[in-house]
Amino acid sequence: MDTKLIAQLAGYFLIVNLLGLYVGHYWILQDVQPTIINDDPNDVVNSFGLLGYMLVGTLVILIAIKFFPDKVLYWFLKGLESLALFFTSLITMAAFLPDAFAVFTAMALIVIRIFFPQFLLWRNVSSTIATVGVGSLLGASIGVWPVIVFLVLLGVYDYIAVFRTKHMVTMAKAVAKKNLSFTFALPTSKHQFELGTGDLVMPLVFSVAVLGDSLNAGWTWPVAIIPSLAILAASFAGLAFTLDYGSKNVGKALPALPLQVGLMIIMYGVLRVSGLFG
Predict the structure, then answer these.
(1) How far is 140 from 54, CA to CA, in rounded Å?
(2) Which one of 71, 82, 143, 158 has the lowest number of neighbouring Cβ atoms within 10 Å?
(3) Handedness of CA 262, 264, 265, 266 (dihedral sign)
(4) Range of the domain at 268
(5) How many domains does the chain have?
(6) Mean pLDDT in the chain?
(7) How would you class 253 by CB atoms within 10 Å of its CB: exposed for 0-12, middle for 13-18, buried for 19 or more?
């Protein structure tokens, strides 16, 4: 096992998800639920809506990779990064800062990413803030069962996109070359591994949705995060296994979500059987 690689993974995983649970708790209390397809957060049609949005976004990026000249592609992806970072920073910072300071922080991050793109630490900081923003708000906006359906759909898609069509590999290589905040950089002495933000977003979405169930069952903060932490532990086990396997087979692309999804759903089943949610 590459201990440096797993240590980096554990560090980012803990930072993202502990921050994400706190920010998710903030948005749950605010009762902010953006409409995905309809206003019912427990309607599974929202699961298919989320998948549809993701597929459209993926298609747009793949078309850009195929047809845009390299310089145009760079600034196109840089524009997407800046736009995503601005709004996700506002979502994350709203739990800690007044609106004006949140906007200033978002703009500062964008400026740093544009003028100092080579700094891996700032890329990972930006990826952390973006992941926390997306995962916390989405988890607070959708019920547990739609999240589970979405996770299953995404796990199947991830497997097909990596092993069958391989378009996810194409997209990941293009993004990694541009040093954008859509992945976490995990450098070791032998290789720099790239971890997609989605591999941390989805556990956070699930754990925040579970946090909402815990609060509805009468648990109070911070005790209410215990079931969510169990979900995250299952996710980390799957992610660490996949990354460790990848470190021993450098060059072989692996989808992280299928194993994560399976372990998280099993853990949730155990929590339900235990009667934690009433």
Answers:
(1) 19
(2) 71
(3) positive
(4) 3-273
(5) 1
(6) 87
(7) middle
- Which pLDDT tens digit goes with each residue over 199-209? 899 999 999 99
Predicted local confidence at residue 251, as pLDDT? 64
At 277, the pLDDT band (50, 70, 90 cuts) reads low
Residue 116 falls within a domain, yes or no?
A: yes
166-185 confidence digits (pLDDT tens): 888 788 777 777 777 788 88
Cα–Cα distances (Å) from 56 to 63, 113, 177, 200, in that order, read 11, 25, 22, 21
Total residue count of the chain as it appears in this document: 278
Whether residue 46 lies inside any domain: the answer is yes
Is 268 among the domain residues? Answer: yes
